[in-house]
Amino acid sequence: MEGISSVLGDARNAGVLRKFSLFSVLMIVLPISVFFGAKHLAVQRQISLGFLGIDNANAGTVLAALIAVGVTNVLMIAFVFSALAEDAASQAETTSRAPAATVAPSRSVPAPGPASVPGVPKSAKDE
Question: Which region ranges are annotated with the description Disordered (predicted)?
Fold first, then answer.
């Protein structure tokens, strides 16, 4: 247990755990709540999905399931983007703390082009 305590003692790791815990709770609570709320509204408003070949008895359940799946996908995408943003911020912080490397200025050497190749005219009008 000493290893877990030392990992969680770091402020960056504690933030990661907090974010992971928040998204885990949201992944459990939000889709289930949205499913039952959407099903209740669909039954209450008598929404029909007959154009999809779904009878009215199951229309509320199908619609609620589709909405719950959409909410789940939005949560997963939000978690991935927040993790990527956190990683980018962490990398930027790491590079800003690193001492700047001293680089000697290099002498610019022109790349060989058609003008420096013997026997090749500089342009078409030089021919």
Answer: 95-127
